[in-house]
Design a protein that fits this description.
- This protein is an alpha+beta fold and about 150 residues long.
- The chain contains 2 helices and 11 strands.
- The strands form 4 sheets. Strands 6-7-8-9 form a 4-stranded antiparallel sheet, with no helix packed on it. The chain has a 3-stranded antiparallel sheet with strand order 3-4-5, with no helix packed on it. A two-stranded antiparallel ribbon has the order 1-2.
- A hairpin with a 5-residue loop joins strand 6 and strand 7.
- About 15% of the residues are buried.
Length: about 150
């Protein structure tokens, strides 16, 4: 029962964050004027929808999302991907922020660029941040053995 309440609270907080961050609604009952890009968690498709919930455009991938998509000004899409096979150390973090890959897809779905980081001691996190200068800021999980962490303070 407690786990169910925790999950419900998580999704409520997530919905509030998404709406406050991306402007899902200005006032109750008043939709955002524009389009919304999102990647359903258990899907390999990323969708661009309008206010009527009609799919305006979609991109296909070979991986489920890493919980992060960014529509770029030129119509391309930055999308993190959730790798299925992770290094032994990261199996426990699979649903807690793991990703492993970033794809940059053109409007037509062709791959412009891809980056993957999934080693025994490093794993690309699920989120990225496009920077104003065109670079990407990427978070990385790094495994540090207990003894080394304690020795480092």
């Amino acid at each position: 029962m407690r786990a169910t309440k925790s999950i419900q609270l998580y999704f409520l907080c997530l919905a509030a964050f998404i709406c406050s961050s991306f402007g899902c609604s200005r006032k109750p009952g008043e939709p955002y004027d524009g389009v919304i890009v999102f990647a359903p968690f258990n899907s390999t498709e990323t969708q661009l929808i309008n206010n009527k919930h009609e799919v305006v455009h979609s991109w296909q991938s070979d991986l489920p999302p890493g919980q992060c998509v960014y529509l770029q000004p030129d119509g391309s899409l930055l999308r993190t991907g959730r790798l299925e096979e992770l290094g032994d150390v990261f199996q426990k973090t699979y649903s807690k922020g793991s990703g492993g890959r970033v794809d940059w897809l053109e409007w037509d779905g062709s791959l412009r660029w891809s980056f993957e980081l999934n080693t025994k001691v490093e794993l690309l996190h699920h989120d990225i941040a496009p920077m104003p200068n065109g670079n990407l800021l990427m978070l990385v999980w790094v495994f540090v053995p207990h003894e080394e962490a304690v020795a480092s303070g």
